[in-house]
Amino acid sequence: MEIFLNKRAMRQVRLSVADAIADGETDALREDLVSTFSDDDIEEIERRIDSGDFYDFITEILDEWSGEDLDELLELLETQLADADVDLKYTAPEDDDSDEVEEETEEELIVDETDDDDDV
C-alpha cells in the first residue's frame, strides 16, 4: 500500500511539530498527524498494525520521538509504516518554503493596499 501526503498536509505537520517542540506538548501534534490520513488509509493501516488502533500507533511513534526534529519524526513514521507494508510518500518539507514565501509576499501586498485605502 502507498500513501501520499500532499504539500498542505506536510505544511500542517511541520507547523504542528514546531509548536510541539516549542510547547513540549504532543497532543495537538498527535491529532494533526491522525488528521493527515484519510479514513480509508487509517482503516487499512489498522488492519496491518499489531495494535489495530491507529491513534495508539501514532502515540507510540510520538513516545519514541525525541521531540527535537521533524526529520526524525518523519523517519520514525516511515519506518513504522514500512513495517506494516505501507509506503509513505510526501513532499519534503524543505521543498515547501518557496510556496510560503510567495504567500507571505501576496499577503503583504494585500495589507499594503488596505493601508493605502485608509489614508483616503
Element layout with pairings:
Layout: E1 2-5, H1 7-23, H2 27-35, H3 39-48, H4 54-64, H5 70-83, E2 87-90, H6 97-118
Parallel strand pairs: 1-2
Supply the key terms.
single chain, 120 residues, mainly alpha, two-stranded parallel sheet, 69% helix
Descriptive account of the structure:
The chain has 120 residues and is mostly helical. The protein has one domain. Helices cover 69% and strands 7% of the residues. The chain contains six helices and two strands; from the N terminus they run E-H-H-H-H-H-E-H. It has helices at residues 7-23, 27-35, 39-48, 54-64, 70-83, 97-118; strands at 2-5, 87-90. It has a two-stranded parallel ribbon with strand order 1-2. Helix 1 (7-23) packs antiparallel against helix 2. The longest helix is centred in the last third of the chain and has 22 residues, at 97-118.
Number of helices: 6
Number of domains: 1
How do the helices and strands follow one another from N- to C-terminus?
EHHHHHEH
Lateral arrangement of strands in the main beta sheet: 1-2
Mean pLDDT metric: 82
The outline comes out as: globular
Work out the strand percent: 5-15%
Estimated structural class: mainly alpha
Supply Rg.
18 Å
Q: What is the CA–CA distance across the termini?
A: 59 Å
Unreliable runs, pLDDT <50, ≥5 residues? 95-114
Largest sheet: 2 strands, parallel
Count all strands and give the number: 2
